[in-house]
Amino acid sequence: MARAFVKAGRRSIAGAAAGLLTAAAAIGVAQVVAGLTVPASSPVLAVGQAAIDLTPQPVKDFAISTFGANDKNVLLGGILVVLALFAAATGAAAVRRLSWGLWGLGAFASLGLAAAATRPDATAEWVVPTLAGAAAGAFAMVRLTRAAVALSPAARSPAGPPESSAATAPGELEEPAFTYLPNPDEPPRRPRRPERRQFLVASGLAAATAAVGTVAGRVLAERYNVAKARAALRFPAPAAPAPPLPPDVDLRVPGLSSFITANDGFYRVDTALLLPEVDPATWRLRIHGMVRREVVITFGELLKRPLIEDYVTLTCVSDPVSGPYVGNAKWLGASLAALVRSAGPLAGADQLLCTSVDGFTSGTPLAVVLDGRTLPAEGGLLAVAMNGTALPVAHGFPARMVVPGLYGYVSATKWVTDIEVTTFASAQAYWAVRGWAQQAPIKTESRIDVPGSGASLPAGRTPVAGVAWAQHKGIAAVEVRVDGGPWRHARLAAVPGIDTWRQWVWDWDAAPGGHTLEARATDATGYTQTPVQAPPTPNGASGYPSVGVTVRR
Q: Taking the alpha carbons of 504, 508, 514, 516 in that order, is the dihedral positive or negative?
């Protein structure tokens, strides 16, 4: 009995290794084919995108708040772990019955096919990488499983037939018995081990296929890299330059967020596992739907329009109170309102359903775009540059929307290629379907940057500083209080307009002990930030930001 358990354990370990190598080889081949066709059609990426779409909202909120910009890497890592466990279990089953392993492989391939075929921008070629990977995986599984079975103790035993003489069940791999009659006059000889060599060779080929395929897939995907096209762009001088920044726009308090957020430090929240690489030479924007005439514009034609510069703060609706998902930049682009008006919106339309190249959609209130109260040329930008350079790929190159006053999920579509003029009643965008508000004006908010939560400070005069924002309205005042005491007015930095955040600072005479600092902002309409704590869902977080500090004697 003990011997049977040992035999089963060794066989399962060999099978699990065979299953892992099978999965690796399948993914490697799929990566190559995806590199030759559509990089985003890789089965791992397709399944990951499907997971993003199907994940319950509370789980998404947890991932964003816990992992931040690394949430997508965590997701991909989790998918690979699950795949590895499934592959190991499938391989262990395959050494007992090959058909079980092939059924497991088929199940996972079906998942990949379903994920790829249901992507919003999928075409027929999206299923090719998964099919190729499944075929390679089936071949690898047969070879590796047979080698693993031959490697098992019973298969290489010189002592005679297997313990059980029962007939091999249909579909089960038969284990050959190698028997011989020893010569009593000769010393015992160690049997040859061609089975181990066979397994090692098959394993090495599978591992090499996985490694070469993964590297080749990445190299092939680089064909779509737009770094050179982005670097070669030259933009004409703006017809409406950004206003000069006032000298005291930045209070220069150590640790305080700078007025302009650097491109590489600007927050990124989107649903793209693989950043779309869109060549400006092939980019098109189509405006259609409830319009008098359909408009299609190329990137070259976009740059010939009057370009506008302005400073605008963007805020993600997922940003919790005191969160990091807000940033300010100088944007360059064409008037979005002018583009929409060129198509002639029909009466009754109230939404711009904007679609990214990867199929993501956002719903922007048409009235906000056409109201004429924001940028010099009204209603936001179809932006092409950020802080003086072409848009980074991670922030929407070659063109994205920037509409002040609204949370990003309804106003800041990256890689935008399609705008349908429609109604909120007839079309729901990506996040609206998942329970978020269809119209999402940004709430008046503030954040304490300095001191940080948990800081230990010396007693005496110390700055309490942060930023506040109320895009479309402007910040009129910020107040700070200590331990629930009276509110004290902070000193405000200058700003070039109402659509940016505003720095503030209050000089605190800190007394020894533990203290809680809170802040609140008042916008130019007279509305003061609410103390009512609310989560980001469904229309943005609210509540006073607070930090706890310790003041040393």
A: negative
Residue of 109, 67, 120 lying closest to 272 (CA atoms): 120
**Closest among 374, 293, 392, 290 to 336, alpha carbons compared:** 374
Distance CA 334, CA 302 (A): 7
pLDDT tens-digit series, residues 416-445 = 999 999 999 999 999 999 889 998 999 999
Q: Is 231 exposed, middle or buried (0-12, 13-18, 19+ CB in 10 A)?
A: exposed
Q: Which pLDDT score, from 0 to 100, does residue 3 have?
A: 53
- Tokens found for residue 350: 């109230």
Cα→Cα distances 306→316, 372, 382, Å: 28, 16, 11
Backbone angles phi, psi at 350, to 5 degrees: -140, 5
Please give the mean pLDDT across all residues of the chain.
88
Lowest mean pLDDT among 150-154, 190-194, 423-427, 493-497: 190-194
**What is the rounded end-to-end Cα distance, in angstroms, of the chain?**
73
Domain count, the chain: 3
Q: Provide the 8-state DSSP code for 255.
A: T
Looking up residue 312, the CATH number of its domain turns out to be: 3.90.420.10
As a whole number of angstroms, the distance between CA 546 and CA 86 comes to 45
pLDDT single digits (tens) 310-365: 999 999 999 999 999 999 999 999 999 999 999 999 999 999 999 999 999 999 99
pLDDT at 195: 67
In a domain, 472, yes or no: yes
Burial annotation 166-183 (CB, 10 A radius, 16+ → b, else e): eeeeeeebebeeeeeeee
Of 371, 373, 368, the residue nearest 412 (C-alpha): 368
Cβ atoms of 508 and 464 within 8 Å: the answer is yes
What is the C-alpha separation between 102 and 26, in angstroms, rounded? 13
30 lies in the same domain as 159: yes
Tell me how far apart the alpha carbons of residues 276 and 299 are, in angstroms, rounded to a whole number.
Answer: 16
Listed residue (142, 145, 140, 169) closest to 155, CA to CA:
145
Q: Comparing C-alpha atoms, which of 332, 358, 330, 333 is closest to residue 497?
A: 330
Check: CB of residue 496 under 8 Å from CB of residue 446. Answer: no
450 and 427 both lie in a single domain: no
Element of type H or E holding 301: helix 299-304
Query: Starting from the edge strand earliest in sequence, which strands make up the sheet with 475-482, in order?
Result: 456-458, 546-552, 513-523, 475-482, 488-489
Beta carbons of 251 and 493 less than 8 angstroms apart: yes
Question: Residue 518 maps to which CATH number?
Answer: 2.60.40.650
Contact 19, 91 (CB under 8 A): yes
pLDDT tens track for 164-173: 444 444 445 4
Q: 497 phi and psi, to 5 degrees?
A: -175, -175
122 located within any domain: yes
